[in-house]
Design brief:
alpha/beta; globular; 52% helix; 217 residues; TIRAP protein; 5 strands; Tol-interleuk_rcpt_adapt_Tirap; 11% strand; five-stranded parallel β-sheet
Length: 217
């Protein structure tokens, strides 16, 4: 009877689950060692990344004295109808007021008095890097606007950023066929469109500078 009572009060052995739990806990690294491993791993990645990182390519200075920008008299020639003069004057004021002080050709302001209209339009196109075509209902009805547009396309037939069509109050179906291979800016918000024009001109002048530098090398 005595040995039977001792057998009943003997402590129970650990369960299989507790053994497994104990075993798995001992087989895993501690939280501190795990975090240190992760830290060293991430450190190694950052070091490797920093060792192969490239220095950012700086944008060329379009205002430098040796910039090909100065090879032409104007950065931008604005082609527009007479009825859109007020809007164009705002655009010219915006571009000329930028830190780069873009040089704009405005026909009624910059054309030489006494010169032939055809001569002035052709000279403006040839002496400008970029041409903004403000395509409005008045533009589509003005033969001189169409003439200047054709001169610009003849000067640079391939769309390389020099011709910048800007649509205002014109349906897409009325977009001139001659410009169908060139993306246009749709003027809904004036301020946003002005910035898009500025950025496009800037992009072209920077690419011009890069090309010039590569040629010299």
């Amino acid at each position: 009877a005595g040995w039977f009572r001792r057998l009943l009060h003997k402590p129970k052995p650990s369960s299989v689950e507790s053994l497994k739990s104990s075993h798995s806990a001992s087989s895993l690294p501690s939280s501190s060692s795990s975090s240190s491993a992760k830290s060293s791993s991430s450190s190694g990645v950052s070091l490797a990344t920093s060792s192969i990182s490239l220095s950012p390519v700086s944008a060329p200075d379009i205002s430098a004295s040796d910039s090909p920008r100065w090879d032409k008299s104007y950065d931008v020639c604005i082609c527009h109808s007479e009825g859109d003069l007020e809007l164009v004057e705002e655009l010219v004021s915006y571009l000329e007021g930028q830190p780069e002080s873009f040089r704009c050709f405005l026909q009624l302001r910059d054309a030489v008095a006494g010169s032939a209209v055809v001569t002035e339009l052709c000279d403006a196109v040839q002496n400008s890097h970029c041409w903004v075509m403000l395509i409005t209902p008045g533009f589509l009805q003005d033969p001189w606007c169409k003439y200047q547009m054709h001169q610009a396309l003849a000067e640079a037939p391939m769309a390389n950023g020099r011709t910048i069509p800007v649509l205002k109050d014109v349906d897409r179906k009325d977009y001139p066929r001659e410009l169908r291979n060139i993306y246009y800016i749709y003027m809904a918000l004036k301020e946003k469109s002005f910035k898009q024009i500025r950025d496009t001109v800037m992009r072209y002048l920077q690419e011009l500078c890069r090309s010039s530098t590569k040629t010299m090398e």
